[in-house]
Design goal:
This protein is mostly helical. It has one domain. Helices cover about 50% and strands about 10% of the residues. It is globular. The mean pLDDT is about 90.
Amino acid sequence: MTDDPVATFCGDVPRRAAEAAVARLGPRSTKSFVQPLAGAGRRAVPSTYVVCERDRALRRALQEDMAVRTAGPVRLPSHHWPFLSMPGVCASLFARIAREASA
């Protein structure tokens, strides 16, 4: 975990909302970082990666590496949690992706 999760995950979210979101964080197993991947859903189901251009949690190069493994990346000028900083943009994006997937 970071020393300053508000700045790391939601530097573009209003402070009160960011603090409330961070307060809901809990422990996370380290297995997700070290356990070999047995299967990747993105291989069977088309997926989209949201590259957060102002992310302080994941380096841009790592995001780009993950993005090339998907059907296509979308770039947002946000920190790590765009669903909090730009919920309308995310809702529209997810609705469009769902429509395209069901077409």
